[in-house]
Amino acid sequence: MSSAGRGSMLAQPLQRPSAGRIAALLGLIVLGVAVGAAGTLVQAAWFPGGLLLALAGAAGLFVGGSRALDSRSGAVAPAFGWVVAVILLTVSRPEGDFLFGAGGGSYLFLLGGMALAVICATIGLGRQPDTYGARLGK
Q1: Mean of the per-residue pLDDT values of the chain
Q2: pTM
Q3: Which spans in the chain are helix H?
Q4: Do 69 and 24 meet the contact criterion of CB atoms below 8 Å apart?
Q5: pLDDT at 58
Q6: CB 3.0-4.6 Å disulfide test: which of 9, 28, 113, 137 passes with 78?
Q7: Residue 40 φ then ψ, to 5°
Q8: 3-class DSSP state for residue 9?
Q9: Average of pLDDT values for 28-47?
């Protein structure tokens, strides 16, 4: 998307994403759900190594999605899936079953994963101009 001769890139109208990009974002949401569910099981099974493994997997997915799509939406989509999966798995059922205990590891997984999602979505790749000579005088 070149903005040569049409003013600032931020002043350009938004375009509808392609079907391939929408499919990639939906795939990243599904991967976020899978990583959230797997992390829920792993973090409690092998504490503290499982907690670190679950958080590293989530961070890898968030950063990888951002790099794969060259945008912040690549980090936000799996983060959305991760948060939805983890929040739904924290709810106890009427029978009393639940996947998260009341230990510190569970809270570290919840808060650490949410912090990683925010960090990766914030520092993810944003919209950048295609040209390298953006400075005046070049």
Answers
A1: 82
A2: 0.77
A3: 19-45, 49-69, 73-90, 104-122
A4: yes
A5: 94
A6: 28
A7: -60, -40
A8: helix
A9: 90
